[in-house]
Amino acid sequence: MFNSVFFEDLGVKYPIIQGGMAWVADSSLASAVSNAGGLGIIAAANAPTDYIRDEIRKAKKLTDKPFGVNIMLLSDNAEEIAHLVCEEGIKVVTTGAGNPGKYMELWKSHGIKVIPVVASVALAKRMERAGADAVVAEGCESGGHIGELTTMALVPQVVDGVNIPVIAAGGIGDGRGVAAAFMLGVQGVQVGTRFLVANECTIHENYKKKILAAKDIDSVVTGRPTGHPVRVLKNKLARQFQKLEKEHATIEDLEELGRGCLQKAVKEGDIVMGSILAGQIAGLVKKEQSCKEIIEEMFNQAEEAIIKFK
Question: What is the pTM (predicted TM-score) of this model?
Fold first, then answer.
C-alpha cells in the first residue's frame, strides 16, 4: 500500500528514514533500522572524522542492507566527512545546517543519493536546483533544530513546489502519522523520537525514561535569539535558557549554557542539565521495542488507518 519508487530504487523495503540525531544515531541504531527494512542513518554531527569512519565500518559488519550518513554542513569537519562517505561507499547522504551544493558533483560521481532536510519551500527549491535527489520536509513539531512551519502546512506546499520526491518529518510517531503524511503526497517519512526508545538505541536509560514519561505539552523551544531554535523536553536547563532569553542575554552566554549539554543527556544520563532533544510526538511514545517492531507496527497501523476510511 505504501509503495515508493524512490525507496525501492534505494533497495529499502519500507519508505522510512531514521532521523540523523546527533550523538544518538550510531552504528547500532542505524544497522538495526536497516535490518528491519528501513533506511538507517549514522549522524556525523560534530563528531571526529575517525569516530564516524569507525561507526560506518561497524555498521557494515552489522548489516548488509543500505544505510546512510547525516552531515551537518556547518560542522568544522564537514568537508572531511563529505569525502569520507565517498571513500566508504555510502550510498545515501542526508544533510542539514547548510547548502550541500559544493559537494554535489563529488557525491554524484560516487553514486550517492543526496537528501537535504528543509524547513521551507524556498529552501526545497534551492536544493532541487543544486541537484538533490529528494528532500525531507521537516515541520517544527520535530525534536532538535527546527523551522517555523508545522508539518501539515509545510509538506503539501513542498510537494507542490518541487519535482523531486518529498519525505515528511516532524510529529510522525505512529501509523496514523505515516498515513497522514502519504495523503499529503510524500514518498516516505523520517522518524526520530520514536527510535529514541528502540532497544538498539544506545542512549542512556534516563533519557529513554524521560521520553516514555513525556506528556503532550512537555516540549519547549529554546534558542530562538541565536537563530537556531531547538525543541527539547522541559527540565532545569530549558528553564535556564528561557530565563536568559527573557533577560536578553547575549548569544555568547546562551551558546555557553548549551555547550556539551546534548552529550550530557545522551551519554551521562543527565536529565536535569542535559539537553533532551525530542519532538512533540514524545507524548505518544509509551513502550520500548526493537526497531523491527517499531517499523512493522507503524506500517501495519498505517494500512489499517487507510482501509478504515476507504
Answer: 0.92
